[in-house]
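Quick illustration for those who missed Monday's session on complexes.
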Amino acid sequence: QGADGVKWDKAPCRFCGTGCHVRVGVKDDKVVAIQGEQLAEVNKGLLCVKGYHVGGILYGKDRLTQPQLRRNGKLETISWDEAIDVIAKRIYDKPEQFAIYGSGQWTIPEGYAAQKFIKGGLSNNHIDPNARLCMASAVTGYLSTHGVDEPAGCYTDLDECDVLIMWGNNPAEMHPVLFSRVIDRRSKGEKVTLIDIGTRRTRTSEYSDEYLEFRPQTDLAIANGIAHLLIENGTYDKQFVERFCNFRKDTEEASLFGQASTFEEYAELLKPYTPEYVSQLSGVPVDKIRLLGELFGRKDIRITSLWCMGVNQHTRGTNMNRLLHGIHLLSGHFGKPGDAPTSLTGQPSACGTAREVGTLAHALPGGRVVANESHRRDCEEVWNMPAGRINPKPGYHTVKMWEQFCTPTEEGGDISTVWVQVTNPGHTLPHLKKHFTNKAGLKDKFLIVSEVYPTATTKLADLVLPAAMWVEKNGVYGNSERRTQQWFKMVNPPGQARDDCWMTIAVARRLFEMGHPGMKDKDGNFIFSIQDESGAEVPVWEWERYYEVNADKQLFEEYRKLTYLKHKDVAPYDELVKARGLRWPVVKKADGKWHETPFRFMEFSDSYVEKGKQLQFYHSVTKDDKALIWFCPYEPATEEPDEAYPLWLCTGRVLEHWHSGTMTRRVPQLRNAMPHAYVEMHPEDAAAQGLGNGDLAVIETRRGKIELPVWLNGRGRPPKGTVFVPFFDENLLINEITLGDIDPISKEPDYKKCAAVVYKR
Ligand code: SF4
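Prediction with iron/sulfur cluster bound:
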């Protein structure tokens, strides 16, 4: 505490998956100052404009402070006791029809408690995070390449690479602090070549040495074109491939692990992808395709590829992830700092809570899956639950869950109650009329929403629960580079707002008291039994007692027991308290200290790699320590422009707002900097419709239409034939008209391309 009475503590930023660390200044139970954390390796004292204003997100004027139940169409204030009762009764009556829809913004203990409640308590597996909408294809890409999820490299790759290739992403706006690490190197005179492969010019293009504009969906062909050139020119890394790789191709029915293939078959399948053919498909000039092939063929440089939503939100997102891993493996640009293919996450704990904890509908903690009997037994043992408690059938993935919820029960819609925590599906689901808003006409469906502010989702909620956020509670997040970050509660939440984790435990306890068998362990004890130092159970389901002990720590330590199977060993909670995040696997060595692993599978960094192996994919699909190089063909998009809908519509984010803007739109500086959504057009497309800058245009797809002001020659510059709309604005909801089609393996929707027509209002 300083002389000014301000007390400082550490926390990760509340927004993106970069995971910058901030110093939070608190005075009189209020966050009064934010600084970039100098001690943090991720950001070294820097923050982006959202990070500098992160404290302001707590203090919007319309914070939700009371539980509210909808009666006769109107939300009325009720007590927490009644709210808990309402939820418990809905579940008790139809546990198989109850689902939780969560988020990559859940803290690790929150997500862990929610998935244990559903999978171990209710045995139905109907839980999925919104991360399904943003990085599920990265998960299936890593799994089908390395046999285990999450990147091998880390952000240090950005400090070491000679070439940075950005595939359909815009880190200058979406991961600005990461991007600045490279720009900073260049400003110090280091040579780093930046290549932006995108479908529209962005701020990232402005900094790039090469901007390669491709026709949407043809990234698949470009990646195949690079592999083709590596083989044709004989510049692939033969020794690396023979020592560390096997080959795979897709089966007729898309599957996670496909079927075995050979180098010869792979080379044969790639033959059609000549630079000329790829250029014809993609619109990227032949010499630029050759440039990419030549770069990957060089052994004297290090290449890092970054991607994010452009690759993941793709009806062939899994395949595109596989192909990017494949060109790095084929060329040997893997296994050294600076040589890495990495998918970035958009949410602060998409890796930590969605992927590592296993809040996805098919998953269990620590990289386990519900379909595997021994994985289920591991969890049942740690949870002291009888064998067979966990259902082997995966629950509904996000799009399916909402389809079932929005389908009348009599027509087979077998999800009747959804509890939404820490996310805003009424804004972010694709094709909202199909997946969300038609709930309004369904009388037997019940929507529970834990939230901080009124949102597009709370508008249709039957029960609204006021939630604590960020430093109003204890938490642990896991960022894009396997770094687990802890923080403590610093201020009290307003009114009766409470922790999401507490809400889950309180509902579980009410069900326990009602005699629900799933809320008891083998010895008849409550499944969320939290103890004090003497071992006596503390009734943490009573809010007044919740912070008597650190429930977060106990849940995290329970979760930690499940992290070893796939070598995702997180550090002990007390070590995380001391650190600014630690990258797993975190291993205790002979010196008695806990050591993180910046580079996974690599002998120089990863203590799980056997001596002398150099590189070891120790969870290899083929059980021989090798990774898989996939052949996946170029396939056209599900919906392409035609005569009636002649333009590509792409959606995305902007620097100032985070996702659906519920937090950032409450911060005046951010709201004023970017007050509303717009449609970016090419000036010629606009002129053809008589549209000028600022004019209101109608954007129409086969799913409906909305009106937006036109922005020409602005921050983003789409090519002729493409329009772009950011999705942050709840008054101009582009997701009413986006496509709902999903990748067949990851089940992630494509928000980046569908056919649209734009005309003057
Ligand atoms: Fe860092 Fe992302 Fe927060 Fe910006 S929004 S400060 S880049 S974590």
